Amino acid sequence: MSAMDTTHDAAPAARKARGALDAGVRARLRGDLAFRVLMLALSFIAIVPLGLILVYIIVRGASSINWQFLTELPKPIGESGGGISNAIVGTFILIAIASVISIPLGMLAGIFLSEQSKSRLGTVARLSVETLMGIPSIVLGIVAYSWLVRPLGHFSAISGGVALSMIMLPVITLATEETLLMIPVTLREAALALGASYPATILRIIVPSGMSGLVTGILLAVARGAGETAPLLFTAFGSPFMAVNISKPMESLPHTIFYYATSPYPEWQSLAWGASFVLLVVILALNIVTKLVTSRWKIQY
Amino acid sequence: MEDPVLNPVVPTPTIESQGVAPAAEPGIILEARNLVAGFDGKDVVKNVSLGVPAGRITAVMGPSGCGKTTFMRCINRMHELASNAHVHGQVLLDGEDVYRLNPILLRRRIGMVFQRPNPFPTMSIYDNVVAGYNLNGARMPRVERDRIVEETLRRVALWDEVKVSLYRRGTFLSGGQQQRLCIARAMAMKPEIILLDEPTSALDPKATAAIEELVVSLKGVVTIIQVTHNIPQAARISDFTAFIHLGELVEFGPTRTLFTVPKDKRTEEYLSGKFG
């Protein structure tokens, strides 16, 4: 310390200059702190309502969850109890129909976009997919209605599945494209240089290398489709019975919530809370699985 | 002088290969005739004519951006994969014009190893070695596959290091091991020619020495064309050297002659470090 002091005494001008510098640094540190506090405060404001929603659904919904709730059909007004098994089964069937349509189509379109992004068809295709992504889900419901419900003359699960597939399709396509564009070009060259055909290179090298990203995109699309209500209102419609025939109307969790929550009966309203809770758990589970897939199946190049 | 890059533990093939006596002149396996190639209408390779001797190591050297990699990618028709690429002239493999062959079949006869090791990340070491067969849908009994894997890995001196971990991912290996795995992947197809595109540029000196030793040991088994901008490396391992500058073939000849008595002034300047 004494050596340092001597230096200071020896050069008062330098010390003064350093003092000015210190003041500048202190001001910047204060600025840093203020920004940090502001950031924390704003993120807190953003997170609190989300947390409250979750807590509210859990508090109101968890109380109506029991074995009977998950396995029984809804009861007529006046009778207590009853469950939402038809809606749980219905949601799974609707998602299955939508997945069968949208996963192959979406992945193929995504592969095409990643391969031919600069071609004219590629440009048009990407614009279409991005537009489809932005179309309100109720409009897609009307499209499915005019394509299937009107010609067939009645509501059906298949029309609901088609409506959901139009919601899932762009999510899968864009996720596939983005994933495949991140695969290093050297892998493709390695495969082609071995005499692999173009399809073999794409399907056996490029796609497997991006598998975690592809699965993530599919799961996110499923989570999105599982929560849609609007397009189901005039396609799958809803049914108080256990329906497994896909040409007949079918219940779904979002529709159950919509239907029961807007009813005047407290029993039904509590069923709606329970159904919300189930839907929340399903979507939460999908998101957690997505995170696990992304971290576990991560491929290093 | 102990620098492993300059003095690797390689059985330097000075006497026998750089040929006091290329006693029997090796036949020409690959010949480029007036080859012109480039991108967007701009020529990168300008009228290169060159005959590659069979079973020997031919180095293609030159400063960065001189067109040596493009030249090599014309040989196995990887160059034309870029949509803005063009190529004229002929490349003859055993007298057949490669531009008349099916590129897929051609690439099974001419293997390639890249600058950075690129084993397939989804495949085990085992599957990487036989990837060429699997990707081409070849059906063969398990024993046959096992035999190819062991034989090829022994050939690239990787067997002892990986025999206990054949079913682990190839990407777990070190950079040098990965590159040897990539050479094994190319060699497993029993190609006539193997193209090495600066295979040691991403490796440390020790791994570089191992690759050089391996390349020299492959001589006779396969014809090797190696691109490099590492002058000492070309001198150490190759039998013949082509010097390319600004897309033109400046000089081509036995490595020893080219390095000791270059005919062209540009070769001499490049070798003495005046440019590049």
Give a brief description.
Chain A has 301 residues and is mostly helical. Chain A folds into 2 domains: 15-62; 85-296, MetI-like (MetI-like fold, Orthogonal Bundle). Chain A is built from 13 helices and no strands.
Largest sheet data of chain A:
none
CATH architectural arrangement of the domain at 28-118 and 192-271 in chain B: 3-Layer(aba) Sandwich
For the report, how would you describe the main beta sheet of chain B? 6 strands, mixed
Helix content of chain B: 25-40%
Tell me which protein chains meet in the greatest interface and how many residues each side has: A-B, 22 and 27 residues
Give me some keywords for this one.
heterodimer, A: 301 residues, mainly alpha, MetI-like fold, 2 domains, 13 helices, flat, B: 276 residues, alpha/beta, Rossmann fold, six-stranded mixed sheet, four-stranded antiparallel sheet, 11 helices, 10 strands, 32% helix, globular, disordered N terminus
